[in-house]
Amino acid sequence: MLDAVCPDRPAHLLAHDWGSVQTWHAVTDERLRGRVASFTSVSGPCLDHVGHWFRTGLRSPSQWGAVLKQALHSTYVGFFQLPVVPELTIRSGLLARILRSSDPEEPAPSTSDAVHGLNLYRANMTRRLSRPAERYADVPVQVLAPARDAYVTPPMHTRVERWAPDLRVRHISGGHWVPRAAPERIARAAAELVDHVEGGRQARSLKRARVAPRPVGRFGGRLALVTGAASGIGRATALAFADEGADVVLADVAPLGPVAEEVRARGAEVFTHTVDVSDAEAMAAFAARVAAESGVPDIVVNNAGIGMAGSIVDTTLADWERVVDVNLWGVIHGSRLFARQLVELGEGGHIVNVSSMSAYLPNTVLPAYSTTKAAVLHLTECLRAELAGAGVGVSAVCPGVVRTAIAATTTFSGADATAQEAKRRESDRMFARRNFPPERVAADILRAVERDRPVVRPSVEAKVVGAAARFTPSLLRAAARRI
Ligand SMILES: NC(=O)c1ccc[n+]([C@@H]2O[C@H](COP(=O)([O-])OP(=O)(O)OC[C@H]3O[C@@H](n4cnc5c(N)ncnc54)[C@H](O)[C@@H]3O)[C@@H](O)[C@H]2O)c1
Q1: Could you tell me the CA-to-CA distances from 304 to 59, 145, 385 in Å, in that order?
Q2: Ligand 1 in contact with 409 (CB < 6 A)?
Q3: Which of 1, 76, 248, 407 would suit a FRET pair with 386, their CA atoms being 20 to 30 Å apart?
C-alpha cells in the first residue's frame, strides 16, 4: 500500500485503534525500514509493548494500580475470546447498546465489521501478550493519549520510550473516539509532527511532548508565562521555571531586559512583551501574539499587581479604578484569554492567579487592595471549577508579607507627597524586617502547578490568617478594627 500511495519517499503514518496496533507492527518491522518518515498513534498500542508493560508492571508494586485499572478496562478482551457468545451479543445489538451507554461518542459498529473484528482479538491477543517480542521503532513517533479513553489507559501506551527512542507523548482531552469527536485535534498534532520532520519549525506542543532521553527538570519543554515578571515574585517565578527546564514568556510594563538576561543564562528560551495587564485590547493582542510567536503557554501566572493603601473613603475614585483595573481586571483578562487557548488546545495546562493573605483579612489599612485580592481568590475558585472538565488546573497563591518592591511603590491614597514618601519608607522597612524572600513564593507556585493545589499560602502569617478566617472569623473581624 505504501508503494501505491507514496512511491517516491518515506510516508507519514497516522492511525487509530486497531489501525494503530497494526501500524506499530509495520513501523517496527525490518522490511519497512526507510519507507516510514513518522508515525502518530492514537489509542492503539503495539501488542508486544503491551505484553512487556503488563509483565514489568506485575513485578513492580508501585505499578499494580495502573495494571489493575487497565485490566478492568480490558475485560471485554477476555469476553471476545469466548466461542459464539460474542457473535450473539453483536448480532442482537446488545453490544452496541452497552458501548453507547458507557460512551455517547461511541460509533455504532456495523454488525459484519464487529463480527469480523472478533478475529483480530482471537488471533493476536493471547499470543502477543504471553510471548511478547522486542519491537523497536527507529522513526519519530508521537503517541496521542486521550484522557478519558475507556479501553486504552494512558500508562499502557505512553510508556514506550524503550521501544521508540524518538518519542513524543501528548495527553489530549477526549475519549477513545476523539478522532471522530474532535478530528481537528488529531489533525493538528499529526501535522505538527509532519512539518517538523520535514524540516519545519518545531511547534511548542511538540517540543513539550518530547520524552527526553534524560531528565531536563520538572518543567522541561514547557512554556511558562508570567505577568509582572520584571520584579519581585514575578521575576523569582520566571527564574524558578527556567531553573526547572521551562522556556519563559515575560510580560510587564517595566523594562524586562535584565530578567530576560537572567532567564537566558539558565539556558531557557525567553520571549518578552511590554503589556499593561489592565488594558483589555492590549491583553487580547498580547495573548494572540504569544500563541503565534511561542505557542500556547502550558502555565500562565497572572502575577502583576500594585499596592494601594488608605481608608475606603479617602481612596480617590481614580485610585479605586486603578487598583481594580490592574489587580482584578488584569487577572480577569489573563485568565479568560489564556483559559480559552488552553481549552481549545485540549492538552491540559495550568493557570495560577496571585492573590494575597489580605483576601482573608478584613482591615482598615489596605481595604481597596484587599477587596481586589478577595475577588481574585473567588475568581480563581470559580475558574478552577469551570476548567476541571477540560483538564486545566487552576491555583490561587495567597502570600503574606514578601520582601519585594511593592511597598516602595504602593500608593497611600489621601496622603500628600511628603507623607506618601514617609509611609512608603516605613512599609518598605517593615517588609525588609520580615525578610520573606520572593523565591519561596516562587517555589510554592511551582509546587501548586505540579500538585494542582487549589490554594497555597506560602508564609506562616498567611497560613495563620487562612486558618483564622476558616475557624474563628469573628476574631479577625475584631482585630480588623485595630489594624
Ligand atoms: N510583596 C508582598 O508582600 C505581596 C503579598 C501578597 C501578594 N502580593 C502580590 O504579588 C504580586 C507581585 O507583587 P510583588 O510583591 O512581586 O511586587 P513588585 O512591585 O516587586 O512587582 C510587581 C510587578 O508588576 C508589574 N506591574 C505593575 N502594574 C502592571 C501592569 N498594569 N501591567 C503589567 N505589569 C505591571 C510591575 O512593573 C512589577 O514589575 C502582586 O499581585 C501583589 O499584589 C505581594
Answers
A1: 49, 35, 23
A2: yes
A3: 248
> In this predicted model, what pLDDT tens digit does every residue of 219-241 receive, in sequence order?
988 999 999 999 999 999 999 99
Q: Which of the four pLDDT bands, split at 50, 70 and 90, describes residue 212?
A: confident
Same topology between domain 2-209 and domain 223-480: yes
Query: 351 C-alpha to center of ligand 1: Å?
Result: 17
Q: Which of 261, 295, 257 is nearest to 273 (CA)?
A: 257
Among 225, 231, 444, say which to mutate for ligand 1: greatest number of ligand atoms within 8 Å of CB.
231
Indicate the domain borders of the chain.
Answer: 2-209, 223-480
The band of 76, judged by pLDDT with boundaries at 50, 70 and 90, is confident
Q: Is 232 in the pocket of ligand 1 (CB under 6 A)?
A: yes
pLDDT, tens digit, 9 for 90 and up, residues 394-410: 999 999 999 999 998 99
- Among 256, 235, 225, smallest CA distance to 441 is for 235
Pairing of the two strands 223-227 and 167-175 = unpaired
Q: Residue holding cell 483480530?
A: 120
**Once rounded to an integer, what is the mean pLDDT over residues 161-178?**
92
For ligand 1, atom 8, name the residue with the nearest CA.
356
Whole-angstrom distance, CA of residue 286 vs CA of residue 215: 32
The residue written with cell numbers 450473539 in the block is: 88
How is residue 271 written as a grid cell?
Answer: 520571549
Q: Report the nearest atom of ligand 1 relative to the CA of 327.
A: 41
Q: Provide the pLDDT for residue 106.
A: 67
Residue with the nearest Cα to atom 2 of ligand 1? 402
CATH assignment, 223-480: 3.40.50.720
Q: Identify the pLDDT of residue 214.
A: 64
State percent of the chain over pLDDT 90.
77
Q: Please tell me the distance from the alpha carbon of residue 372 to that of residue 378, in angstroms, as a whole number.
A: 10
Of 370, 406, 427, 428, the one to substitute when testing ligand 1's pocket (max ligand atoms within 8 A of C-beta) is 406
Secondary structure (3-state) at 354: strand
**Average pLDDT of the segment spanning 261-265:** 96
What CATH number has the domain spanning 2-209? Answer: 3.40.50.1820
Mean pLDDT, residues 187-205 taken together: 95
